Amino acid sequence: MKQILDHMPLDIVAHPDGFIIVEPEQKDDDGRLKISFWFYNLKSMEVQKVKRQFYAECKFGPAYQEILDQIVDYLTCSVCETPKDFLNVVFPTGEMGIFDITGTLIWTGDLLYHDCSVRSCAPDGKNIWCAVPDQNAIVRYSTKLERIDFRIGGVDTSTLGRPLSVTRYDNDLYVCCKTSNNIKKISLENYTMTDYLQFEEGAIRYMRAGGMEVVLLGSGIYIMD
What is the rounded (10 degree) CA torsion for 198, 204, 208, 213? Predict the structure, then answer.
């Protein structure tokens, strides 16, 4: 495991050749915080400053400007695609929006589980998996039923330790857990769970980019050797 950033960025987004991070800078004359965008190319191992457009298109797709015009906070939300190019945007408050390929908002609402907000999102056919940190669980939201229809973990179990994010690769979910300091791997074929990676601190985000595994921990960004 190799550390390539020694602090947490405001956001990190996967790119086919690496990842993009958002960094805070000094405040402007009006007291507003300025931010900058940096692209870490894991294939060439080069870092370069990029424009917000590059970051936004990578995160939200071709209709990024139409989507940005409709949301206030584009940094803290999680994004995932589902069939027919629908884009799901989930905020840490539990608010979720579903946009079509043109960036038109077709549904919005608050997604809660036992009055607790969900965060992060990963696709599963027409369904969406989200993490519920305060319930020590991940849940599946059915877009057909318009409700949560399946849960893994729970507030009374130690199966997951405050999951903060969920991502999908192939037919598996990868769940980053803060208090158990690990990443769990869950098969979508039979829902069996195994320990995937263990750390000495909480796991926050996991992604694959540039042919490498990238993990965001409390102390920064790491690539797995």
Answer: -30
**Farthest-apart Cα atoms in the chain, separation:** 56
The whole-number pLDDT of residue 22 equals 97
Beta carbons within 8 Å of 155's beta carbon, 6+ residues apart: 114, 134, 135, 136, 137
CB atoms within 10 A of CB 71: 16
Going by the DSSP 8-state scheme, the letter that residue 32 receives in this structure is P
For residues 144 and 130, give the distance between their C-alpha atoms in angstroms, rounded to a whole number: 16
Evaluate whether 219 touches 201 at the Cβ level (below 8 Å): yes
The pTM (predicted TM-score) of the whole model is 0.94
Q: What are the Cα distances from residue 36, in Å, to 19, 21, 22, 54? A: 14, 8, 6, 12
Scanning the structure block, which residue is given the tokens 């960025």?
A: 9
Instruction: List strand residue ranges (DSSP E) for 33-146, in order.
Output: 33-41, 46-50, 78-82, 86-90, 95-99, 105-110, 112-113, 116-117, 119-124, 127-132, 137-142
pLDDT tens digits, 158-196: 899 999 999 999 999 999 999 999 999 999 999 999 999
